[in-house]
Design goal:
238 residues; alpha/beta; six-stranded mixed beta sheet
């Protein structure tokens, strides 16, 4: 259902529920939480879906239809919002590898990542309004930070579904790969970020005082890894 793979310093979480197009059920939320915890020591994290049809197709309506009270609905929303918040707060870079369509709650999971890499034939959309509901897992707020409040209101309010190229143009997707190159391409992309300085860069981008940013740089400057890399450059120049 939810698999965790280690590829050196890279951790990869895969949601693999082919019978439900990788939709999120209550048990999936628990397994995602456990996988993020188990990946805590990785330098970078990828979240993706099984197959090539869906990244995450949203919430699993067959199971979530049992929630009939406002209390039950709120509890579910808080539960999955917490998972998405934990994904967003992961110390290193988080990459959503959009192997298939990311719709409704799937789009919310995608925008909890720092970077979205997509196959060229996928679609993404906050189409919860088609069910007369709204994003509940923090996706509306994150969408607004990515594309601006007006465009976020248009996308989520109308339920517009974008293809990968259009989503890249508005800043919802960061990098689009041809389908034939996708599996190899997202791994190479993620491995390039699976280095410790990327975590420090993420922290600074997230907003720290100038002194903290300089301190982070200084710690990296005196590290053995920096001087090994610097010596290699200097030796090539001789």
């Amino acid at each position: 259902m939810v698999e965790l793979e280690r590829d050196g310093e890279l951790a990869i979480i895969k949601i693999d529920r082919p019978e439900a197009r990788n939709a999120i059920a209550p048990e999936t939320m628990d397994r995602l939480d456990e996988a993020i915890e188990a990946a805590a020591d990785a330098a970078a994290l990828v979240i993706t879906g099984g197959g090539d049809r869906a990244f995450v197709s949203g919430g699993d309506l067959k199971q979530l239809a049992a929630l009939r009270t406002t209390e039950q609905a709120a509890a579910m929303a808080w539960r999955m919002r917490g998972v998405c918040d934990r994904l967003a707060a992961f110390p290193g870079p988080v990459i959503a590898a959009l192997n298939g369509h990311a719709l409704g709650g799937g789009a919310e999971v995608a925008v909890a990542a720092d970077i979205r890499v997509a196959a060229a034939d996928i679609k993404i959309g906050f189409n919860q309004v088609s069910l007369q509901i709204m994003p509940a897992w923090g996706g509306a707020e994150r969408l607004a930070r990515l594309v601006g409040p007006g465009r976020a209101l248009w996308l989520a309010g109308s339920g517009t579904i974008l293809d990968a190229a259009a989503a890249e143009r508005v800043g919802l997707i960061d990098h689009v790969l041809p389908r034939a190159e996708f599996d190899k391409g997202w791994r190479e992309f993620a491995r390039a970020l699976a280095v410790r300085p990327a975590a420090e860069i993420k922290r600074v981008i997230g907003g720290v005082a100038a002194a903290e940013a300089v301190d982070a740089f200084a710690r990296l400057w005196v590290s053995d890894a920096h001087w090994v890399a610097a010596d290699a450059v200097l030796n090539r120049a001789r």
